[in-house]
Amino acid sequence: MIVLKEGSFLKELVQRFTDDEVPGLSAQLSYFFLLSLFPFLIFLITLLGYLPISQEDVLRTIEEFAPGQSMDIINETLAQILNNRNGGLLSFGIIATLWSASNGINAIVRAFNKAYDVEESRSFIVARGMAIILTIAMVFVIVVALLLPVFGREIGLFIFSNFGFSEQFLTIWNTLRWLVSGAILFIVFTALYFVAPNKRLHIKDGLPGAIAATIGWIVASLAFSYYVGNFANYSATYGSIGGIIVLMIWLYLSGMIIILGGELNALLYKRRKAA
């Protein structure tokens, strides 16, 4: 049994969870995540015509982490949108993605500023510009993450087959895919924790939270997906919107893990300055 001693690190982190209204901020963040999810997927899938990636590759990547019932909602919604696609869909996807995702980044900025006990002194234009640049950077990183498996698999199979190790490569590749996914998440989280707060920080100040958030998000996503797939039946309780409820809970957990990573960084920063 863990005892939370007075002044202990864990006790202070738990106190911050309550004082900084992490559950409420996570709910707010999940709302913006939901708003930006489909515009982002529209933009990404419309962009696939210019890249050696299929729609199945994108959805398979999401499916590795997303709960099953939420994937049904994502697949159905995307199918409806893409069946009515037109020439302006890419332009709409870019604009909608940048605006709605930057709203999500702004919510993250407010949560991190609260963690560091600082006010937002940057102008609206600077703050929104930073949010849009971060969004573009994350889109770029995600596209690279999707390209790596395509090219990596082909290059690996070519090299390993010349040595007669093609079967062994497939085993190694399945392990490497998880490492690549984790590395991409780590890069995204590090950028968020370094740039988003209105505080002059070093990159190393964002590393503890980025590591914790990367591991926490992967574990939480896989655990929640397993729980939904084997124990919970949200459709029995919520009917046809069961998939939406599952998606919202997953996004809520994701938002909470991101904010907790920021709280962890802020607490460690505060303790280093006080030492």
TrEMBL record:
<feature type="transmembrane region" description="Helical">
    <location>
        <begin position="172"/>
        <end position="195"/>
    </location>
</feature>
<feature type="transmembrane region" description="Helical">
    <location>
        <begin position="131"/>
        <end position="152"/>
    </location>
</feature>
<feature type="transmembrane region" description="Helical">
    <location>
        <begin position="207"/>
        <end position="228"/>
    </location>
</feature>
<keyword id="KW-1133">Transmembrane helix</keyword>
<keyword id="KW-0812">Transmembrane</keyword>
<dbReference type="GO" id="GO:0005886">
    <property type="term" value="C:plasma membrane"/>
</dbReference>
<feature type="transmembrane region" description="Helical">
    <location>
        <begin position="29"/>
        <end position="51"/>
    </location>
</feature>
<dbReference type="InterPro" id="IPR017039">
    <property type="entry name" value="Virul_fac_BrkB"/>
</dbReference>
<keyword id="KW-0472">Membrane</keyword>
<feature type="transmembrane region" description="Helical">
    <location>
        <begin position="240"/>
        <end position="262"/>
    </location>
</feature>
<keyword id="KW-1003">Cell membrane</keyword>
<dbReference type="Pfam" id="PF03631">
    <property type="entry name" value="Virul_fac_BrkB"/>
</dbReference>
<protein>
    <submittedName>
        <fullName>Ribonuclease</fullName>
    </submittedName>
</protein>
